[in-house]
Amino acid sequence: MNTITTTNFQFPGQKSVYRGKVREVYNINDELLVMIATDRLSAFDVVMPKGIPYKGQILNQIATKFMHLTSDIVPNWLIATPDPNVAVGHLCEPFKVEMVIRGYLSGHAAREYAEGKRTLCGVTMPEGLKENDKFPTPIITPTTKADNGSHDEDISRESILEKGIVSEADYLVLEKYTRALYQRGTEIAASRGLILVDTKYEFGKTKDGVIVLIDEIHTPDSSRYFYADGYQERQDNNEEQKQLSKEFVRRWLIENGFQGKDGQQIPDMTDQYIESVSERYIELYENILGEKFTKADITNINQRIEQNVINFLKS
């Protein structure tokens, strides 16, 4: 199936291109950013060799929807979405931290906890929890924003301020916005029969010095969801939670001997497995947004994106 895993566009007014793990960002005249969500799949900070059909469209449309649903509480960078895989927004200077917020002991936090650690990013985790238990209050556990090919690293609030990565005044705004977005995300998830377990947000500053939400929000790549129905019963019975996130990909990789560590080989992803991942992403979309997913025409996906973006920039 056709996927978009890399782009090489030349848009009018193009100044530069930044290639992230999943998104490619084109700077237009130092005014706009054209962000293309590719079909690349990243896990353990490693990009997998094959793309996942419709993944970029799914991520872009979920993020766009949530940008609109949260714009009344936190300003964001978004101006328009001229193509199913594309978002266009204001040029921002990104903060070099990702704001991770966790309502539950899951994923990375659970793995650290299982090793006996009770402090994560300078935040104390209570004793007596088991995997997927709810924290008394959500905790913010930031990471550094790594360059492509590097791993994001846990960092404490104290270290961020000490190293001058973010000023104290700005960091207070980032924390406030992170908690507000997570609260809104939790409410929306609950209305869909889901629990927003944990998520990450990225912020930047506009040319006018305004702090805004950038990149993605509440997508299955940046967030973990559980099904609310039966959550407590599964916890009481020490059963695994039913998840909506890309954790299923991470689990499959771990089972096949890969955790992104040096010397490990990425296991072969068959066409059948790729298709199953695509179907899971569509399931995620429909559950998270509560609406049917409409597949865009991917006959010539690069040409479609290029034409839509050029038409937008000309207008």
Tell me how many strands there are.
Answer: 17
User: Tell me, what's the shape?
Assistant: globular
Residue-averaged pLDDT, rounded? 94
Radius of gyration: 19 Å
Largest sheet: 8 strands, antiparallel
Structural category: alpha+beta
Work out the helicity level: 25-40%
Strand content: 25-35%
* SSE sequence, one letter per element: EEEEEHEEEEHEEEEHHEEEHEHHH
Tally of separate helices: 8
Low-pLDDT ranges = none
Distance between termini?
32 Å
Defining key terms:
315 residues, 8-stranded antiparallel beta sheet, 5-stranded antiparallel beta sheet, 8 helices, 17 strands, globular
TL;DR of this structure?
32% of the residues lie in helices and 25% in strands. It is an alpha+beta fold and 315 residues long.
What would you say this structure looks like, in words?
The chain is an alpha+beta fold and 315 residues long. Helix content is 32%, strand content 25%. The protein is built from 8 helices and 17 strands. Strands 8, 9, 12, 13, 14, 15, 16 and 17 form an 8-stranded antiparallel β-sheet that branches. It has a 5-stranded antiparallel β-sheet with strand order 1-2-3-7-6. A hairpin with a 5-residue loop joins β14 and β15 (211-214). The protein is globular, with a radius of gyration of 19 Å.
